[in-house]
Amino acid sequence: MSTVAQSIGGEPVTTKLAMKMEDSLQAFAVRAACFIGELEVPFSEEFDGHDFGATHIIAYVGDEPAGAVRVRWFQSFAMPERLAVIQRFRGHNLGNLLLERCRALANSRGCNMLYCQALPADVKYWEKQGWRRLVPEEAGGGTKQIVAMVQAVDPSKPLPDVEAPEAVVLRREAQLDSTGMPFGTVSN
Amino acid sequence: MTAIQTADGSNRPVVTIKLAATSDELMQCFALRAAVYMGEQQCPYWEEFDGNDYSASHLMLYVDGEPAASIRIRWFGTFAKFERAVILKRYRSMGLFMPFCEWAKEFARKKGYTKVYLHSQHRLWQIMERGGFKKLDDRVFHFSDHEYGAFIADLEVDEKTVPSIHSDPMILNRPEDQLDRPGILEKSMDRGATNPHADWMAPRTTN
Q1: What is the rounded end-to-end Cα distance, in angstroms, of chain B?
Q2: Whole-angstrom Cα Rg for chain A
């Protein structure tokens, strides 16, 4: 696997889980810079309602928030997404560092599979980080916008050929009414 | 003056301006600034989020409900300082900045401010002058990788309606971007001064 810089420009490289409001804000700022500022993703798509049911990991160069990733948790897999590294800190494998922290976190929670949805153009990047396509290329139909990819949390325990849901996890969580029940589930 | 709406039945976008009043709206504001300053202008995080965000007012502009622009205002004794004005890339050249700036001035004026002060990046000086701001002096200074000059605009305040310590106390309690209409605390007056925690206060006050 590729090596990760331990320091950039003399500044130490570290990662941490967002535990406080300010930490989360830093993760959101990194994503806003990359996805809204650079890639022109609309705010409402970038901040999709999943941010307060997920875990955020931030990479720092010194004190400066340089990268972030969000992990959502499902019973059969953990899902890293919204991986972003600020432009001037790219080329130092911070993405790999963040994904490795995801993997270690998933491992500590007894999770055995990481699952992500990659853009076709990014598949090579994920493969370099040790991920593989969930469904072999030909079987995918060819016209898909998003490629489902998986990685074993413990590299010594390769994944069985399981089918993870490919599309369902992109949906918003059900909107809850004031009693905590999803809308439409209570008839009276 | 809570909102400017340009909905005339055509397919023109609906533009709404308001004071950020919830944590959601604040987060939208921070996301816009991160997108423009950190994403486009490569500003470091700690310079963009400089510690003054929680002692300021943040104005938000929405286009069809999507966060599109924001301005931060800090309140000094004799002037209001406009800062961190951003418009998301896709919403530029829609002519949003001037009306937004006017709304911000009107907001400051209704709070009783007679002067607005700001630091403008050199490349935007002409735009600021067209927006009714004038250069304060010849000083040019730089921070966060850009050259700045100070600009001011005078606001005309009506002494009769300006909020003061002699204003109706309940007017001063209103949401700051809606000083001209009754706020939630005026509605609370229906409940009277019932002093609902009197029971547990009683043991202490009898000593």
Answers
A1: 51
A2: 17
Domain boundaries along the sequence of chain A: 7-111
- Considering only CA atoms, which of B172, B56, B64, B163 is closest in space to residue B113? B163
Q: How many residues does chain A have?
A: 188
ipTM over cut 0.95? no
Q: Which of A48, A39, A23, A12 is nearest to B45 (CA)?
A: A23
Question: CB-CB: which of A25, A43, A63 is closest to B28?
Answer: A43
Q: Give the model confidence (pLDDT) of B52-62 as tens digits.
A: 999 999 999 99
pLDDT for B199:
79
SS3 at position A186: coil
CA within 13 Å, CB half, A166: 12
Q: Does B48 touch chain A (CB under 8 A)?
A: yes
Residue B86: closest CA among chain A residues belongs to which residue? A37
| pTM score above 0.90 | no
Q: How far is CA A52 from CA A1, A180, B24, in A?
A: 32, 16, 12
Range of the domain at B51: 1-116
Per-residue pLDDT tens over the stretch A123-163: 999 999 899 999 876 554 555 578 999 999 998 888 776 55
Q: Assign domain A7-111 to a CATH class.
A: alpha beta
Looking at the fold, whether B109 and B36 belong to one and the same domain comes out as: yes
Mean pLDDT confidence for B29-37: 98
